[in-house]
Amino acid sequence: MSEADQQPLRNAIHLATGLAAPWVLLMPDPWMRWGIVAMVVVALAIDLARTVFGRAWLDRLLPGVYRDREPLGLSGATFLTIGYLAAVWLFPPPAAAGGILALAVGDPAAAVVGRWYGARTGRPGKTWAGSVACCVACIPALWLLSPFGLPAAAAGGAMAALVERRAGPLDNVLVPVAVAMLLNLWVV
Q1: Do residues 182 and 142 touch, judged by C-beta distance below 8 A?
Q2: Residues 163 and 175: beta-carbon distance below 8 Å
Q3: Which of 35, 98, 159, 177 has its CA 20 to 30 A from that of 141?
């Protein structure tokens, strides 16, 4: 299965992880943190199972979720959950939820638009169209779900796009942390 064929299910799962944002906003500590820790544990367990038993069983269960360049070791999904955990641990819930939401919405938007409309220039696998889509998708999501105004949402969208474009394979860890940091500084 080509990477283009893999993308719809990957994007759907990415978007679904955005449910962690309202979880972070609504659940009291320590339940909120333990819920995110559980996400990390599940992702690590799946990666361990992929390493021990091979990838074929998982490809049959969830075809196309793992990229060809993720044969063994930590997957993008694990890095995503680690990024969510770092945001939750380092920042107050509203900022952490914004960081989580920025990655959950912005990364799939960048992937879809970048594949459809983008000419690859500058960064391997990144397009300007995808970066703009990341920013544009994040702004209403951050504005509607988090307690920040439109200027903060726009700054968060721009930060998500910048980090997603420049961070390479660590974007799943760095986008939620960078956006949460910016939103946290915005309200100080």
Answers
A1: no
A2: yes
A3: 35
